[in-house]
Amino acid sequence: MSLTPRDRARRPVLDPTRLAFLTGREEQRFLADRPRSLALLDRARAHMPGGVPMAWMTAMHGHPPVFAAEGDGAWFTDVDGHRYLDMNQADLSMNVGFGPPAVVAAVADRMRRGSQFMLPTEDAIWCAEELAERWELPYWQFTLSASGANTEIIRLARHVSGRDKILMFDGKYHGHIEDSLVIMAGNGVKPELYGLSDAAASRARMVPFNDLDAVDRALAPRDVALCIVEPALTNVGVVMPAEGFHQGLRELTEHYGTFLALDETHTQIASPGGLKRLWNLEADAVGLGKTIGGGVPIGAYGLSETLAQPLKQPPVMQGAPMESVGGVATGGTLYGNALSMAACRAALSQVLTPQGFVRTAALGAQLADGLAGLFAAGSLDWQVHRLTSRSGFTFADHLPRNAAEARELAQPGLYRLLRLWMANRGVWESVATAGPTVSFAMAEAEVEFYLERMREFLGDIL
């Protein structure tokens, strides 16, 4: 419901001086309460750039990283003894929760009996059969990440189509791979980060999400091998598709002979078959990762008969002793390893069940309803998005339709204060580009814990 002029006049205006004071106060508290994490970070800088084993860890939160000690269910504890309700779940890789008994037992047993053979195990068959039923694509391959899955989907699409270019949407994230780390630049595309090749950008096209006219223009030259899209954008907050967008996208890709892939890395938590199944979407390929391994590294991708055909071909010798099936550049030494397959089977069969998705969706609705009620009570016009268990919000009176709008509505300073404030009171907030997410380890009490902290936060800033 839109606000009337009278409503808008009554909206509280956040005092920037007050926000700056609170940010300074919360940062001081954060640093003072975590001496062991800061000491370990200082020690680590001698042999790890930035003091972390992966550079993102210094940039994700706008404050020094804490050193984790252990996790249990929906919570984890740092080395200074602070316990956090995890609303980010390591970017959903731990959406099943910390230490799910079924996955722990399967992984321990598989380690005892051998974790890697570079040969198939029976668990892999079970996982492929289950994913085929859930995502309604017949053939599956396994990697160690969604990045790896998307890489191989792109290569197969290029090989089968005989085309070179790929089409993506502004605001996407399809992994830290050369082909997808590009951004819009004027009427073209350029590398997103340092160290990337200009050649990769020259093979990419990018258009705004929800803009079918732009898709039509991008596909018209008939040189695009693959269009890859998240069912809902999840790397600029959450941007939902407009009515008819996905149907129109499928029609356009079929018309121009372009393969269509859905990247469900983040949206696979929506239902047993992700948003593809929930929204009855059609695609030639689907990429998955993170969640299906219960915390053990894994990626997977489903393929149509056409895209899978090259992988059914006899091996092509590329120079002894290496081989490549069908001549396509796929595979890796640890891909499809026994440990990943055992973890995946346990997670899918014991945790990521249809009943589990119903429960997390209900908790996500509880979270969304609670947030909307708090904002209304505070006369704030902040809007809540609802994506089953992923119910976040935007600091504005409307939800964005594309990535450009999402960036315009973002308030990094306010988010930084929220994140520090929450961390100091037992909540590990989601990263700025995501939104709070309910995990499979949570119950109503955890959702209420988060909402109560949010209530206190609003009381502090208003």
TrEMBL record:
GO molecular function, one term: transaminase activity
Required cofactor names: pyridoxal 5'-phosphate
InterPro entries xrefs: Aminotrans_3, PyrdxlP-dep_Trfase, PyrdxlP-dep_Trfase_major, PyrdxlP-dep_Trfase_small
SUPFAM superfamilies in UniProt: PLP-dependent transferases
One Pfam entry name: Aminotran_3
Keyword Transferase found: yes
Entry keyword annotation includes tRNA processing: no
Keywords: Aminotransferase, Pyridoxal phosphate, Transferase
Family, as annotated: Belongs to the class-III pyridoxal-phosphate-dependent aminotransferase family.
PANTHER family in the cross-refs: GLUTAMATE-1-SEMIALDEHYDE 2,1-AMINOMUTASE (PTHR43713), GLUTAMATE-1-SEMIALDEHYDE 2,1-AMINOMUTASE 1, CHLOROPLASTIC-RELATED (PTHR43713:SF3)
Name the record gives this protein: Aspartate aminotransferase family protein
Organism the protein comes from: Hypericibacter terrae
The organism's taxonomic lineage, starting at the top: Bacteria, Pseudomonadati, Pseudomonadota, Alphaproteobacteria, Rhodospirillales
